[in-house]
Design goal:
It is a single chain. By secondary structure, this protein is α/β, with parallel strands linked by helices. The chain has two domains: 1-326, Rossmann fold; 334-429, ANL, C-terminal domain (GMP Synthetase, Chain A, domain 3), CATH 3.30.300. 30% of the residues lie in helices and 26% in strands. The protein contains ten helices and 21 strands. The protein has helices at residues 17-38, 40-49, 70-75, 109-125, 144-155, 168-178, 187-199, 221-231, 343-351, 385-403, and strands at 91-95, 103-107, 133-136, 159-161, 182-184, 211-215, 234-241, 246-253, 256-262, 267-272, 286-292, 303-309, 311-312, 322-324, 328-329, 334-336, 339-341, 356-367, 370-379, 408-412, 427-429. The strands form five sheets. Strands 4-3-5-6-7-8-9-14-13 form a nine-stranded mixed sheet, with helices on both faces. A four-stranded antiparallel sheet has the order 10-11-12-15. Helix 1 (17-38) crosses helix 2 (40-49) and helix 7 (187-199) packs parallel to helix 8 (221-231). The longest helix is centred in the first third of the chain and has 22 residues, at 17-38. 47% of the residues are buried. The structure holds 5'-O-[hydroxy(phenylacetyl)phosphoryl]adenosine. 5'-O-[hydroxy(phenylacetyl)phosphoryl]adenosine binds next to helix 5, strand 7, strand 8 and strand 12. The site of 5'-O-[hydroxy(phenylacetyl)phosphoryl]adenosine has 21 residues, from helix 5, strand 7, strand 8 and strand 12.
């Protein structure tokens, strides 16, 4: 039912690697100069390192420049990171900080247009087509997920249903009646919707949904298999962060699954060691650092995302490099009795077990001098007491075996673990700071 013409996007998507690199350097020089001229904090940080925009002669010279961090937004709250006067700002978003003030970001009209282009490019790369209905269950508001997918969906020629998060029963009705082919929401909310559809007597696989655009939180390959099996969709990974833009920084292409294509014509990536900040070669896991190449309102040079990934080579169909699916954030990493642990690793083990459901929480407490790790996970409906006891033992063993930690495993009844409408909170660390 493709009645509208597909929108035309700039053709760097199909440029040669050399042409892309030449354009990256050109844009990078502009972005560094723009930030230097208009953001006093960046100018001061450059001066402290004895570096100036003129030192940028090739892409690798970027490593001379200082890093930007989330703390910079807090320190220069609310508008200190902005590089344009207020009358050029067309939109403001914020991400809730874990401590105190939110991170405030802004967009010029040009920034909003480029953002919509990149989300449109992401949706098309996922297999969405003009004329499709997009059920957008990312939260609308200060969070970038809702409006980001909304504008990009419209730009791609989709009919966007701005469902936002919550009111799950109503969403079920909309999915049944409006027959969206594409759905966008966090992976954890996709499971909430799957349950709600089943509760309403609707087989999720029998709906019109065929493509899921899921991100905003880490999710394992096991979680992906679970969603695809239950929904009958291709569940694809979308990455982004508000400081750098919002959703649509990188997207898993439906024809090149398993990693996310980074839209390198707008964001220049580096991977650095989280401890030393030294760049590591492509193919090595480390912290993703992003530099915006085209952002006007809030240009960011060498932003430490805190996200752990690996840069992989481009594959056929695009000159742009790819990101390994994200393991988690450096600050989500739990250190329990000296062992480093990411929630995603627990998730993989849970979903490997046929009696367990993808609803879990991780609690860490301090018991005297000892850390105490406890995993609460729901059994699937209909699993009897014996099978629950078995699952409990098996999961405990596997955690010990694979992750080197003893953990208390609590098997809960279906529905006992709180559901989320947006980003799921998995970890509750009760240890004194
Ligand atoms: O979560 C933007 C977004 C909205 C992305 C909708 C995808 C879909 P923030 O609230 O600023 O922005 O949170 C950004 O979320 O640094 C990652 O730690 C995490 N994150 C985002 N996408 C993924 C993903 C939005 N696909 C932070 N996999 C980022 C793993 C992700 N983590």
């Amino acid at each position: 039912m493709a009645t509208r013409a597909a929108p035309v996007f700039d053709d760097l998507q199909h440029a040669s690697r050399d042409a892309l690199a030449a354009e990256q350097l050109h844009r990078l020089k502009w972005s560094v100069r723009h930030a230097h001229e208009n953001v006093s904090h960046f100018r001061a940080a450059c001066a402290a390192r004895g570096v100036a925009p003129g030192d940028l002669k090739q892409l690798s010279d970027l490593a001379l420049f200082p890093f930007a961090r989330k703390g910079d937004f807090r320190e220069h709250y609310p508008f200190g990171m902005f590089a344009v006067p207020q009358d050029r700002v067309a939109r403001i978003h914020a991400s809730s900080g874990t401590t105190g003030k939110p991170t405030i970001v802004g967009y010029t009209q040009g920034d909003l247009d480029r953002w919509a282009d990149l989300v449109a490019r992401s949706l098309l790369a996922a297999g969405a087509r003009p004329g499709d209905v997009l059920h957008n269950a990312y939260g609308y508001g200060l969070f970038t997920g809702g409006l980001g997918l909304h504008d990009g969906g419209q730009k791609a020629g989709l009919a966007v249903v701005p469902a936002s998060g919550g009111q799950t029963e109503r969403q079920v009705q909309l999915i049944v009646d409006l027959k969206p082919r594409v759905i966008a929401c966090t992976p954890s909310y996709m499971l909430v919707l799957a349950e709600a559809l089943e509760r309403a007597g609707v087989d999720p696989r029998a709906t019109a949904l065929r493509i899921g655009i899921h991100g905003a939180e880490p999710w394992s390959d096991e979680m992906r298999r679970e969603i695809e099996a239950r929904m009958g969709t291709a569940a694809l990974d979308i990455y982004g962060l508000s400081e750098v833009m919002g959703p649509g920084v990188a997207m898993e292409r439906v024809d090149a699954r398993g990693a996310l294509t980074l839209w390198e014509d707008h964001f220049y990536p580096e991977i650095v060691s989280p401890e030393t900040g030294e760049p590591v070669p492509d193919g090595t896991r480390g912290e993703l650092v992003l530099t915006t190449l085209t952002k006007e309102a809030v240009p960011l040079i060498r932003y430490r995302t805190g996200d752990l990934s690996t840069l992989l080579p481009a594959v056929e169909g695009s000159p742009m490099r790819r990101l390994e699916r994200l393991l988690g954030r450096t600050d989500d990493m739990l250190i329990v009795r000296g062992v480093n642990l990411f929630p995603r690793q627990i998730e993989e083990l849970i979903l490997d077990h046929p009696a367990l459901a993808p609803h879990y929480r991780i609690d860490v407490r301090r018991d005297g001098p000892m850390d105490h790790l406890s995993i609460t996970v729901e059994a699937l409906a209909g699993v009897d007491d014996d099978a629950c006891a078995g699952a409990r033992a098996v999961l405990g063993h596997r955690i010990k075996d694979r992750l080197g930690l003893s953990a208390e495993v609590v098997i809960a009844v279906a529905g006992a673990v709180a559901r989320s409408e947006g980003k799921a909170r998995r970890v509750f660390d009760h240890r004194p700071r």
